[in-house]
Amino acid sequence: MSVFLSEEWLQEFKEMTSDLTKQKEVNGRVKFVITSTPLGKIQFCLVIVVGKVQELVSGPTKDDAVTATFRYPDAVEWFKGELDTDLAYMNGQCKFEGDYAQFMYQLRPVFSSKAWIAKLENLASKTQFE
């Protein structure tokens, strides 16, 4: 069982989400910043091409279209598929810098898909949350 947001978990996350169904014109680059984790501040970038996670870059990155920042408890809920992105944004549980429309609208077909949610639930079942 890997620890949430550890390097091992990030690799599993990338592998699980790399085989999503292709979706034309669903492309983007999102940096996630998770604060107050047991492992410290965690940053990683997802590069999504035609609806699939093509690359996951661990650590600080540049040239990201949008940065989504979550506190640890909210990130746990979001990555378990238990926290709706719209609700998280409205309640201040997720903050955006940059082109938030890319995360909220352009990449919605990925982040709201049944396949994405199923993969997150599967990964969560194999994850140690502290």
What is the 3D form?
Answer: globular
CATH superfamily: SCP2 sterol-binding domain
Low-confidence stretches: none
Quaternary form: single chain
Q: What is the CATH C level class, in words?
A: Alpha Beta
Strand content: 25-35%
How widely separated are the two ends?
12 Å
Classification by helices and strands: alpha/beta
Strand arrangement within the widest β-sheet reads: 4-3-2-5-6
Report on this model:
This protein has 130 residues and is of the alpha/beta class. The protein has a single domain (2-123), classed as Nonspecific Lipid-transfer Protein, Chain A (2-Layer Sandwich). Helices cover 37% and strands 32% of the residues. It has six helices and seven strands; from the N terminus they run βαββββααβαααβ. The chain has helices spanning 7-17, 72-79, 85-90, 100-106, 108-111, 114-125; strands at residues 2-3, 28-37, 40-49, 52-58, 66-71, 94-98, 127-128. A hairpin with a 2-residue loop joins strand 2 (28-37) and strand 3. Helix 1 (7-17) runs antiparallel to helix 6 (114-125). It is globular and about 35 Å long.
